[in-house]
Amino acid sequence: MYYGQFVYKYIEENAVANNKSQLTDSVEAAYDATYNTVKAIKYVYRGAEKVEDESTQIALTKAQENLRKFK
After folding, report:
1. CA distance linking residue 46 with residue 64, whole number of Å
2. Is the pTM of this model over 0.70?
3. Is 26 helix (H, G, I), strand (E, B) or coil?
4. pLDDT, tens only, 2-61
5. Alpha-helix runs per DSSP H in the chain
6. What are all long-range contacts of 5-11, with beta carbons under 8 Å and residues at least 24 apart?
């Protein structure tokens, strides 16, 4: 969770883009993958959701899809 947040915060702070749509495809995929991973993990870690919950599974699926795009 820590490293995922580190990566997407780094991209936000250091990208030469005004918004996500201006990122290159691989950087956008890395951003989305790490963001969705953190999103899925943090609520399970806090006990607010379970691994089996729909929102957790959706975030994990989105993360997997974006990891496949990452080059």
Report:
1. 22
2. yes
3. helix
4. 788 889 889 989 988 888 889 888 899 999 999 999 999 999 999 999 999 999 999 999
5. 2-14, 25-46, 54-69
6. 5/34, 5/38, 7/31, 7/34, 8/34, 8/35, 8/38
Tell me: pLDDT of 71 over 80: no
Domain boundaries, the chain: 3-70
Cα–Cα distance between 26 and 30 in angstroms, integer?
A: 6
Contact 8, 35 (CB under 8 A): yes
Q: Which residues are CB-contacts of 56 (< 8 A; sequence separation ≥ 6)?
A: 40, 43, 44, 49, 50
The answer to whether residues 6 and 30 touch, using CB atoms and an 8 Å cutoff, is no
User: How many CB atoms are closer than 10 A to CB 65?
Assistant: 13
